Amino acid sequence: MNTVSAIETRYCGYRFRSRLEARWAVFFDQFDSEWAYEVEGFRLPSGLYLPDFLLCSPAESGGLFCEIKPLSALPTRCFEFGSGHASAPIDDQFPIEIKKMWELVSARPGFVGWITYGDPYDVITRGTLVFVNDHDVSADGILLCRFDREAKVARAARFEHGEHGAA
Questions:
Q1: Parent domain of 42
Q2: 109, CA 20 to 30 Å: which among 74, 134, 156, 167?
Q3: Which pLDDT score is estimated for 84?
Q4: Does the residue 86 lie in any domain?
Q5: Domain contains 166
């Protein structure tokens, strides 16, 4: 089996493990969102977990944990219910990233989680977003559909010529 290695990428003073993660940072920057990359690791019942992003607002308690996965890792199992919901507890048939995200947000009131498969444009056009809160999981990218322009900016970002990520 041939696999493609991620390309480590610098953007905004961070060294991302992949260009995909850097494109999501560009997407978040389109909204002047406060975000941090791999800010804190957690010990969960299913093992250690280091979410890719934490988005938060200074005016709010809580925040959004975001895990970024390539489109090739898209699990068909969690999309069988379309835009419906799977009630907790999350069983072992779900991918480990969904299980860990659910464990994380269940233990932290006010926090929710996203697991995204692909870049922001994939999420908008293919609906490859899994939303996780303390009582359910839903697979639906529709909530991002109004951010088409920002997703296109993120997809067009080029990192070959420095850290700017400018299109």
A1: 9-156
A2: 74
A3: 43
A4: yes
A5: no
Quick check: 138 pLDDT over 90?
no
Q: How many domains does the chain have?
A: 1
Residue 165 located in a structural domain: no
Tell the residue number behind the tokens 């992003």, with chain if given: 53
CATH number at residue 54: 3.40.1350
Structural Rg of the chain based on CA atoms: 15
The 8 Å CB, 24+ separation contacts for 96-101 are 96/46, 96/47, 97/67, 97/69, 98/130, 98/132, 98/137, 99/46, 100/44, 100/46, 100/47, 100/49, 101/49, 101/51, 101/65, 101/67, 101/130, 101/132
User: What are 62-95's pLDDT values in tens digits?
Assistant: 888 999 999 888 776 554 444 444 444 556 667 7
Are 11 and 159 contacting, i.e. CB atoms less than 8 angstroms apart? yes
This prediction's pTM? 0.80
